[in-house]
Every structure is written in C-alpha cells, then in structure tokens.
Amino acid sequence: MQTILGAGGAVGSHLAKELLVYTDKIRLASRNPQKVNESDELFTADLTDAGQLDKAVEGSNIVYVTVGFKYNRKVWEKTWPPFIKNVIDSCSRHSAWLVFFDNVYMYDPNYISHMTEETPVRPSSRKGKVREQVQSMILEAVESGKLKALIARSADFYGLTNSVLIEMVPKNLMKEKKANWFADLHKIHNFTFIPDAARATAILGNTPEAYGQVWHLPTDGTKLTGKQWVELFSRELNVKPAVQVMPVWMMGIAGLFMPIIREFKEMVYQYEQDYFFDSSKFTSKFGFKPVSPGEGIKRIVEQLEEQETQKLHTP
C-alpha cells in the first residue's frame, strides 16, 4: 500500500495518477478525499490528530507527505512540528518508508541564485525556520536508524491549481487586466511544473537507493526573468504583455488589508534577486527531461481556456 497524506492538493492528485505505474494499491488520506483512480482507497482523517494519522499510515509500505497547511506563520509554527513528529513515529511504528515533499524556504537567501541539494540551510523567514525544523527532524530520524525517508524538494511550482504564477499572470491577462509580479520584474525565477514534480516524486518513492537523501525535483533550467514569463503567457494568449510590479513597500501597506500579501511579504526576497533551482542531480540520475516553460504554458493555457468554455456553457 502506498499512502498519500494530503491527497486533495495539486501535487497529491497528480501523484496519485503517477503511482499507478508502480501499484494499484493507493490510499488517499485527507479530510475529504476524492478518487483520482478507480482503484483508490479513500481514508477520511484529520491528519493533525495523532490517532487518525496513525490509522492512515497503518498497513502502508510507502507514505508520501504532500499536505499543505494554511499559509500563515503562526499556523505553520503550531502545526508542522507536531504533525511531522507524528508522521515519523507512525512510519517507524509501521515500518513504512517516508517521502516528504518539501520547498526551498530553509535555504540561505544569499545563495538562492543557484540552489542545489548542498545549498546552505540558514532561513531568514519564520516559515523558513519551520521548514528547517521539519527537515532536521526527518534527517535526524534517518541518521538514528529510526526511519527510512527521503526529501523531494521543489522550487516554486506552477500548474493549473494552487499556483501563485498562474494567479498572478494568465488569470489576470485573460480578464483583460495587467499581470502582477513582485519586487523586480528583471530577476531570474524558474518554476517547477507540477506534473513533473509528481512523476519524479513517484519515481523517487519507488527507488530504494534514493532514500536517505535530499533530491531537487526536475525543473527546466531555462533562466527566464519575470518579464519573460509574462511575455510567454501573453504570446500564448495572444494579448499584450501588460504587467504591474508590486514593490516591497507597497506589500507592507497591502498586507494590512490582504492577509495573503502580509504572509507572503517575508518571502519576497525570492523575487528581489535571481532565483535558480538546479535539479541536475535528479535529471542526470534518472535521465529525466523536464517540461520546457513554453510547453508547460501551452498546456496550462489550453486548460484555462477549456475551463472558461465550460463556464460559458454551464446553465
């Protein structure tokens, strides 16, 4: 049995599809799980409850953590550490291998212009410090022999759902509004395509020698600036590449009225400087070619336009 904790999100749903390559015994655990594959086993649970979490893990060979808690510093500080402790304890109790889907928040901001698995861990944000704590808990459990686990790390990702890039750029352009960007339009920022991330996470989970390591998930290495991302989307949508940039000082004001901006402000350093995510360790090992930005954007625009067509024909 391969179990996805937090199966309802963008990554979890794509991962469920990819796991069919390896098994038809897939358990989806969340507050309101929905089948992705016909053979999926659904497990309704509050994963912050240790007892319910343990029941979700019981009987699993591999456990994938793709859960996402509310994007709030206080919620993360309160929820992530005890949740991960419970995951580690349950996986250890039931001899399940753990695959943790992670982000780059714990990296030293001075080194994000070229991130590898060896990039120094020295976060400047409260959310980053939580991710540092979570990583440490997992790696310490691995080193002590209590747990068999790996960390699958993604850059900022993009796909049809739960993606800042898609909300900022194509969805605005399709409404004949200006695209939005943060801090500096001329800095490099690469993004991981969600279907690539999901496929790679399934590969890692089912590769025994991958455990005990941190892996950067496959991400196209084209060094695009914010301006170039907007231009690519505009070209695919056949609209003018109109864009407005929100400076850091304005985020402070907007954050007074918009909680998500207030929460995002501590992460805006990722847009004030070049942000490049190197996944060559994974792509070299597995011969994986990530989807190019042009192809990823083409697929997303097609899906967005299909959604708009369906809305128009829905009574």
Features:
single chain; 315 residues; alpha/beta; Rossmann fold; seven-stranded parallel β-sheet
Would you write up a description of this structure?
The protein is an alpha/beta fold and 315 residues long. The chain folds into two domains: 2-157 and 192-216, 3-Layer(aba) Sandwich (Rossmann fold), CATH 3.40.50; 164-188 and 221-308, UDP-galactose 4-epimerase, domain 1 (Alpha-Beta Complex). It contains 13 helices and eleven strands. The protein has helices at 10-19, 50-57, 73-93, 126-143, 164-168, 170-174, 194-205, 226-237, 248-254, 259-264, 269-272, 280-286, 293-312, and strands spanning 2-5, 26-30, 41-44, 62-65, 97-102, 149-153, 157-158, 179-182, 192-193, 214-216, 243-246. The strands form three sheets. It has a seven-stranded parallel β-sheet with strand order 3-2-1-4-5-6-10, sandwiched between helices. Helix 3 (73-93) links the parallel strand 4 and strand 5. The chain is globular. The protein starts with a strand and ends with a helix.
CATH superfamily of the largest domain: NAD(P)-binding Rossmann-like Domain
Q: Which geometry do the CA atoms define? A: globular
Low-confidence sequence ranges = none
Tell me the domain tally: 2
Distance between the termini: 41 Å
Largest sheet: 7 strands, parallel
Arrangement of strands in the largest sheet: 3-2-1-4-5-6-10
CATH fold-level label of the largest domain: Rossmann fold
Output the helix-strand order.
EHEEHEHEHEEHHEEHEHEHHHHH
